[in-house]
């Protein structure tokens, strides 16, 4: 039994089934992605509020949590620790919250690239890069600054 | 008029403002046209904005492939704003299936070697997200260099990129293994975390790496120890737990290193005990760490006491108010139920309570675990709990629950009667959800429990009378009534309520099943055959049965029609064979749990090993095994039932044209007892002769203990089937029939010697004689 916790993908979507972010950590065709997203959204949206955050879907485990109007959904495989994935999701939400100041869905909609940038500072290949909130936020800040200045090469 | 291109925010606004899908599509199509134009000859400074819009539109599900080249251009641009969006675009629009993705390899290479840190970060991120095997091979050395860079920001990313590279190209382990020793001395949590992930990946793929890194167990233990005890800075803690992400990752690595390795397991034993007892689990972070600890304890060679501690922690998790924690507990206990059965058993009451969970994910787990916990000492109690659950469980769990109960009953049934009761109850509650072989299993079970035939048939009759909708139940009940109908009428059975049943009631019930639109074709087959069997079990006249059978001779269902026609023929032309053909079945042999018994074949009273095709049954006939050729033959107990003859009867519609019928031969007569032989030479089997010996009694006194034995010359093979009975009542209409199979491969003249013993008129009689005047057609 593999001990690797590899995240397959992370999705953010609204209660109405509108996709707000999709990060794929395993090569999948566009067509296949669309199919999986549609299917999984249906499954998750059908869950009742009091149900637990874990479900089995296809050959994967799905960890999801709803924050206000957004569902945060991670598909993981292998022998895994669902509880730490919940922490991972929560950390990402905290980062968004700190960055946008009391984040809401509209922030994610109108600043979707930022949401990606923040995610890419926190996770890489599905693994956690840095466990310090401060460190991650600082890195985003610096990148934002650099964007203002506009220079790319040292 | 050309509408000006929108800014991203405005575009989003407009899309959201669209009232219909069509409107949305219109806005987007218009904008995409602008974007395309802009890509062609627009301001390069604004290109990144155009791509951002395209990426938004892509997320809504619209095609964006024409933006792929733009990603390449933007990545190659010196401006950071361009690169940021360009790399994002690459990660969203390019994947290794597209050829375009290889074109970014060069840009990445340049950015890795010459870019400022944020640029290197972008390049590394993209590489670890969409880097194909080829790209990884090309850029491995660049990443290796970055592992030694002074900036911890870059190093942590380089380490994780290495993880991805190894996943894509395992041979690259050669490059990335050596730096690990150094990296493990890092204090930066991010680098440490990445390194441990990297080491885990290496160990998973190579036993040599595994051996190498086992040396690091003490170091890892130390790192974890520091995290746990000195309570690291709040920067990395969550709810008072020191960097739970890092703790979990270390624990996972320790698990791999300690598996099947005494020394390593021992080295981590104390620490694991410490983490298990000291972690604060008031919040999820602590529970996550504790959970990982439990998983590690269970997977390595830990001390027995530690294992028990781990299982108990899971038991405590089961009582946690947090559903998620209960869920992981159930999942883990399920994994442990084989290896640590007694430890898990201690938590059985709690597990059973979890069956009540309204959340289907949890009740499903609880069901699986409950079924795994059934053993011979708790089977009665557990079956009761599971049956209560079956009554209320959600529909998608019904099949598993029903099957699980039946399986457990099969493995641990304390008595046959309990077993039959349990199956009955399950079939009544959830009949439509049981697996196909439940019917076969139950008939097998009942068949083998002779002392319970009366009990079974009564219970099944009562159940059937109440409800004819549950198909498996109806099938078993029909079969049982057919087989043991005589016991149904026979007055009382001590284990059930007294049941007074008339023959007519039974026939009416079976007819109801036959006619009901709820009955599946297979079920109706069972019912028809059962009716037929009752023609020999019941004493009354068979007019009602004959009527039903003849009606179904024109049934549209082919299977039923064929049966009915054959049964009809049994009544008309082969009445003398009817009793033998419909006699009680011998116990069916179950070759394997997977052997599906064809209900159709059973219904016909055909061979009890239905997995054999008809062809080999024919071979069996040619292959007759004899104890002694030519010696007196006794009926073989497990011989294929006379039902085979039905398949061989040449008078079936559509069967090959029969040979000229051989005239019957009366071979014996004494004081009203008459023995007649009728002959059959099935076409297609020239060496075979089927003899049916029919004994009738027209005298005023019963004939009892009637036994017929036969002998043939040495070159012949003879097999006697079990006779239909041994009693001929006075002036009885019911004859005794017995089938003799004679194989004559040498075509020698047939000679037959018979020996009869019986009681008649108060005297015991023995007669031995040779049959004379055997027609030549019996052997030529």
UniProtKB/TrEMBL annotation, chain A:
This is AP-1 complex subunit sigma-1A isoform X2. It comes from the Eukaryota. It comes from Echinops telfairi (Lesser hedgehog tenrec). The lineage of its organism: Eukaryota, Metazoa, Chordata, Craniata, Vertebrata.
TrEMBL record, chain B:
It is found in: Cytoplasmic vesicle membrane; Endomembrane system; Golgi apparatus. Residues 588-614, 626-655 are annotated as: Disordered. Keywords: Cytoplasmic vesicle, Golgi apparatus, Membrane, Protein transport, Transport. SUPFAM superfamilies: ARM repeat, Clathrin adaptor appendage domain. It comes from the Eukaryota. PROSITE patterns: GAE (PS50180). InterPro entries: Adaptor_Complx_Large_Subunit (IPR050840), AP1_complex_gsu (IPR017107), ARM-like (IPR011989), ARM-type_fold (IPR016024), Clathrin/coatomer_adapt-like_N (IPR002553), Clathrin_a/b/g-adaptin_app_Ig (IPR008152), Clathrin_app_Ig-like_sf (IPR013041), GAE_dom (IPR008153). Residues 660-775 form the GAE domain. Its main location: membrane. It is a peripheral membrane protein. Signal peptide: none annotated. The keyword Ubl conjugation does not apply. Gene3D superfamilies: 2.60.40.1230, Leucine-rich Repeat Variant. Transmembrane segments: none annotated. Belongs to the adaptor complexes large subunit family. This is AP-1 complex subunit gamma. The lineage of its organism: Eukaryota, Metazoa, Chordata, Craniata, Vertebrata. The gene is AP1G2.
């Amino acid at each position: 039994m593999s001990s690797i916790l590899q995240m397959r993908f992370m999705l953010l979507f609204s209660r109405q089934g509108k996709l707000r972010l999709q990060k794929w950590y395993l090569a999948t065709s566009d067509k296949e992605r669309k199919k999986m997203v549609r299917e999984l959204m249906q499954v998750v949206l059908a869950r009742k509020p009091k149900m637990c955050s874990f479900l089995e879907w296809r050959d994967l485990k799905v960890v999801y949590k709803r924050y206000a109007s957004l569902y945060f959904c991670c598909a993981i495989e292998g022998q895994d620790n669902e509880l730490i994935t919940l922490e991972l999701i929560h950390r990402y939400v905290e980062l968004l919250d700190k960055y946008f100041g009391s984040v809401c869905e509209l922030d994610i909609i109108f600043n979707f690239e930022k949401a990606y940038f923040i995610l890419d500072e926190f996770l890489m290949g599905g693994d956690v890069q840095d466990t310090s909130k401060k460190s991650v936020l600082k890195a985003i800040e610096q990148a934002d600054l650099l964007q203002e200045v506009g220079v790319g090469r040292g | 008029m050309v509408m000006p291109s929108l800014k991203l925010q405005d575009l989003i606004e407009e899309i959201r403002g669209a009232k219909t899908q069509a409107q949305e599509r219109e806005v987007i199509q218009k904008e995409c046209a602008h974007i395309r134009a802009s890509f062609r000859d627009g301001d390069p400074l604004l290109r990144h904005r155009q791509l951002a819009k395209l990426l938004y539109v892509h997320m809504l599900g619209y095609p964006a492939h024409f933006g792929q080249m733009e990603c390449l251009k933007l990545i190659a641009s010196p401006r950071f704003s361009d690169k940021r969006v360009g790399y994002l675009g690459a990660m969203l629009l390019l994947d290794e299936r597209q050829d375009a993705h290889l074109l970014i390899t060069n840009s990445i290479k340049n950015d890795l070697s010459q870019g400022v840190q944020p640029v290197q970060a972008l390049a590394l991120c993209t590489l670890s997200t969409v880097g194909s095997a080829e790209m990884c091979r090309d850029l491995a050395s660049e990443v290796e260099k970055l592992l030694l860079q002074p900036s911890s920001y870059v190093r942590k990313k380089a380490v994780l990129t290495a993880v991805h590279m190894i996943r894509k190209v395992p041979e690259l382990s050669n490059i990335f293994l050596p730096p690990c020793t150094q990296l493990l001395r890092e204090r930066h949590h991010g680098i440490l975390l990445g390194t441990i992930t990297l080491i885990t990946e290496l160990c998973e793929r190579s036993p040599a790496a595994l051996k190498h890194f086992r040396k690091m167990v003490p170091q890892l233990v130390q790192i974890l120890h520091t995290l746990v005890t000195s309570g690291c800075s709040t920067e990395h803690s969550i709810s008072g737990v020191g960097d739970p992400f890092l703790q979990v990752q270390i624990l996972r690595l320790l698990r791999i290193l300690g598996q099947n390795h005494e020394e390593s397991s021992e080295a981590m034993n104390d620490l694991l005990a410490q983490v298990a007892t000291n972690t604060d689990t008031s919040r999820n972070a602590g529970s996550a760490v504790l959970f990982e600890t439990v998983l590690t304890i269970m997977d390595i060679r830990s001390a027995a006491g530690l294992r028990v501690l781990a299982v108990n922690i899971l038991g405590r998790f089961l009582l946690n108010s947090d559903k998620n924690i209960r869920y992981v507990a159930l999942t883990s206990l399920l994994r442990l139920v084989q290896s640590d059965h007694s430890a898990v058993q201690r938590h059985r009451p709690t597990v059973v309570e979890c069956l009540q969970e309204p959340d289907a994910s949890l009740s499903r787990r609880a069901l699986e675990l409950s079924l795994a916990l059934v053993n011979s000492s708790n089977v009665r109690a557990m079956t009761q709990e599971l049956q209560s659950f079956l009554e209320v469980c959600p529909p998608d769990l019904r099949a598993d629950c029903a099957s699980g109960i039946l399986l457990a009953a099969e493995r641990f049934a304390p008595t046959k009667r309990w077993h039959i009761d349990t199956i009955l109850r399950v079939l009544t509650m959830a009949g439509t959800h049981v697996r196909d072989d439940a019917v076969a299993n139950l008939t097998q079970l009942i068949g083998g429990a002779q002392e319970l035939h009366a009990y079974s048939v009564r219970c099944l009759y009562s159940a059937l009378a109440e409800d004819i909708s549950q198909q498996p139940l109806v099938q078993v009940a029909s079969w049982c009534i057919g087989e043991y109908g005589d016991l149904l009428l026979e007055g009382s059975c001590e284990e059930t309520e007294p049941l007074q049943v008339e023959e007519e009631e039974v026939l009416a019930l079976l007819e109801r099943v036959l006619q009901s639109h709820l009955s599946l074709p297979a079920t109706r087959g069972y019912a028809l055959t059962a009716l037929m069997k009752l023609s020999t079990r019941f004493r009354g006249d068979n007019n009602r049965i004959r009527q039903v059978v003849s009606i179904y001779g024109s049934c549209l269902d082919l299977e039923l029609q064929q049966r009915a026609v054959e049964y009809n023929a049994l009544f008309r032309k082969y009445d003398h064979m009817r009793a033998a053909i419909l006699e009680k079945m011998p116990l069916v042999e179950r070759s394997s749990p997977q052997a599906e018994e064809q209900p159709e074949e059973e219904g016909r009273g055909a061979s009890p090993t239905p997995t054999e095709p008809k062809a080999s049954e024919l071979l069996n006939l040619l292959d007759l095994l004899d104890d002694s050729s030519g010696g007196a033959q006794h009926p073989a107990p497990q011989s294929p039932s006379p039902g085979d003859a039905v398949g061989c009867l040449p008078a079936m519609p559509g069967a090959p044209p029969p040979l000229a019928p051989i005239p019957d031969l009366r071979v014996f007569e004494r004081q009203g007892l008459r023995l007649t032989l009728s002959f059959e030479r099935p076409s297609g089997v020239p060496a075979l002769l089927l003899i049916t010996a029919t004994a009738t009694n027209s005298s005023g006194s019963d004939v009892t203990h009637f036994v017929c034995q036969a002998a043939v010359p040495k070159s012949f093979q003879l097999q006697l089937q079990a006779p239909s009975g041994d009693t001929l009542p006075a002036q009885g209409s019911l004859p005794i029939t017995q089938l003799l199979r004679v194989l004559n491969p040498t075509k020698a003249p047939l000679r037959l010697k018979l020996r009869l013993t019986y009681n008649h008129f108060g005297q015991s009689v023995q007669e031995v004689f040779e049959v004379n005047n055997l027609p030549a057609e019996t052997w030529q």
